[in-house]
Specification:
With 588 residues, the chain is mainly α. The chain has three domains: 221 residues, MFS general substrate transporter like domains (Growth Hormone, Chain: A, Up-down Bundle), CATH 1.20.1250; 51 residues, no CATH class; 240 residues, Growth Hormone, Chain: A (Up-down Bundle), CATH 1.20.1250. Helices cover 64% and strands 1% of the residues. It has 16 helices and two strands. A two-stranded parallel sheet has the order 1-2. The two termini are 40 Å apart.
Length: 588
């Protein structure tokens, strides 16, 4: 009898908690997992970002590469890191899941950094020491380059696995539809995530760069490797408490299916207007007919023979023969933003010229005090701090002022922010050209034309304006790009904006390296000194900056044409609502 009464009390208590809307404490996920995820991502960024600024010096001094060759290697490295983000997203969404891909990326990054450290530690893994500008130095052998490029390749794979998955993995831990504050919780996490990213970059570009400058490559490469090992252990600690969303069909696979099916059905005729009776629609979605733009893609969702094309439950018998309306509209949304997306490629080329600015800083007076000298690779911190300061000012002060006095509660439109960013990038490269012209003239006047390692009596603080303008450009254009993509895509395509942004950075790195190669080859014809000579005092990096500025202005005109041509109507927008109630959330 007493046992029955106790059970009734327990049932009554449980029922009262349910009525009072107190959900049971989750056994997996929630805020307790976020420190592990954020620390893993932050340490990976500290380790990888810390290698980038001074890597140009390592390639020139230790591997005897020219400035153009070293710049091309770094551009390809950056391009690969960004392009492999798409590979990481596909791998996580379609095959392994985010947790396994993050672990794979962490291990790969650690192995790459450990191998890079070995190149600085074992003398036989790089050419013998030599003053390249005074003697004819031995070039690295094929095996030495193979080890170097293998280390950089492993780091690329790690970045491509971790960066596209880390934020989504954190969202998985917090996404609880029963929580009335779910959306605000996710926004808070994203804010902290980006704050940790900015802080990681500052730490990498100050502490890691300082260690490399003062304790050499062995210690400078050992520290990132140790941090990456710790990062791997941190993410593994929470293996048993993570929410692990099961994999599903990749969105990119659906894109390919639409293109293939539309091509196969290219000879069939489309209905004049009403598609409702002839189009296959996903039973889990509330949607309208396919949009009228790019009508030839609508053939992918036309049902030719219902008995053959559909299963008894209404699903396609073969997704490579019949697609749904939401698949078709998703592809249209993706293709519709490509022209605007392409304008971001030249923007990234403008902002990716930091290796040359690092070389400039190395030949200028970097002393803040008599005992403290700012590392040449740390000047990028001015850009990051400017970007972070403007984002905070824009969000907390500028937007409320616009809402109050201009009736614009959402602030500047995405396209306006993108355009401002493009102009600021052009101003930054123009400023860089002017400062380099002054620095080069001062070096020649001081008799340093044949002394590339000589320090000009000109403060490196003159480089701060160009880094500040680049920081403002970064604060305007990339957020505007991502907001533009999000406003055009449905929730089912929420992973596409970051993938597009990463892809633009990858393409810009490839085109940037091609541009460097073209300029270097064109300016050395006839035995002339290259604009991108290893001796900055004989070269003309200022001319190269002016070329970038001109291309940036041409890109801005192209951007204005795209804005005028882009007609975004309600019909063009994806007519998708959220998944209907009762949709299952598959988790391990």
């Amino acid at each position: 009898m007493e046992m029955e009464m106790e059970e009734e009390k327990i049932d009554s208590y449980s029922e009262s908690k349910t009525l009072l809307n107190f959900p049971p404490k989750p056994t997996k996920g929630s805020f307790r997992t976020l420190p592990l995820i954020i620390v893993n991502e932050s340490l990976e960024k500290v380790a990888s970002y810390g290698l980038m600024p001074n890597m140009i010096f390592y390639l020139i001094r230790d591997y005897h590469m020219g400035i153009a060759s070293g710049s091309i290697v770094l551009s390809l490295w950056s391009a690969s890191s960004n392009a492999l983000g798409i590979f990481g997203a596909l791998l996580s969404d379609s095959y392994l899941g985010r947790f396994r891909v993050i672990v794979l990326g962490s291990v790969s990054s650690f192995l790459g950094m450990a191998l890079l450290w070995l190149t600085a530690t074992i003398p036989h893994l790089k050419p013998p020491p030599c003053e390249q500008l005074k003697h004819s130095c031995n070039s690295p052998t094929a095996s030495q380059l193979a080890v170097l490029f293998s280390s950089l390749g492993l780091i690329c794979v790690g970045a491509g696995c971790i960066r596209p998955c880390s934020m989504a993995f954190g969202v998985d831990q917090l996404d609880n539809k029963e929580n009335p504050n779910n959306e605000r919780t996710l926004q808070s996490f994203i804010n902290w995530y980006y704050a940790s990213t900015g802080l990681s970059a500052v730490l990498a570009l100050t502490i890691i760069v300082y260690i490399q400058d003062h304790w050499g490559w062995q210690v400078g490469f050992a520290v990132p490797a140790i941090l990456m090992a710790f990062s791997t252990l941190v993410v593994l600690l929470g293996s048993s408490i993570y929410v692990k969303v099961k994999t599903s069909q990749s969105l990119f696979t659906g894109f390919v299916q639409v293109l293939v099916v539309a091509f196969r059905k290219r000879k069939i005729s489309l209905p004049p207007s009403n598609y409702d009776d002839s189009c296959h629609q996903n039973c889990e979605m509330k949607l309208l007919s396919p949009s009228e733009s790019l009508r030839w893609l609508n053939k992918a969702c036309i049902t030719k023979d219902p008995e053959r094309d559909l299963n008894p439950d209404g699903s396609p018998s073969n997704p490579w023969v019949l697609c749904t309306v939401d698949q078709v509209n998703s592809v249209k949304a993706f293709l519709g933003v490509i022209p605007m997306w392409s304008t971001g490629i030249m923007f990234s080329i403008c902002t990716n010229q930091l290796s040359f600015s690092t070389l400039q800083a190395n030949t200028m007076n970097r002393h803040m005090t008599s005992n403290f000298e700012v590392p040449a690779g740390s000047f990028i911190v001015f850009m990051i701090i400017t970007a972070m300061a403007w984002v905070a000012f824009y969000d907390r002060i500028f937007v409320p002022l616009l809402a109050r006095y201009a009736g614009s509660p959402n602030g500047l439109s995405p396209k306006v922010r993108m355009g401002i960013g493009l102009l600021l990038a052009c101003l930054a490269t123009a400023m860089a050209a002017i400062i380099e012209s002054i620095r080069r003239g001062r070096a020649i006047d001081e008799g340093l034309e044949n002394d590339p390692s000589g320090v000009v009596k000109l403060s490196a603080m003159w480089l701060v304006p160009q880094y500040t303008l680049l920081g403002l450009a970064e604060a305007f254009n990339p957020p505007g790009q991502i907001e533009f993509y999000f406003s055009r895509f449905p929730k089912s395509m929420s992973s596409i904006p970051m993938a597009l942004f990463a892809l633009a950075m990858a393409v810009s790195s490839l085109l940037g390296s091609l541009l460097v190669n073209i300029v270097d080859g064109a300016t050395t014809k006839g035995g002339k000194v290259s604009w991108l000579s290893g001796n900055l005092n004989k070269g003309h990096i200022d001319y190269y900056y002016w070329v970038i500025t001109f291309l940036g202005l041409v890109n801005f005109v192209y951007f204005l044409i795209c804005c005028r041509a882009y007609k975004h109507t309600k019909d063009d927008r994806i007519s998708l609502s959220d998944k209907i109630d009762g949709e299952s959330d598959y988790r391990e």
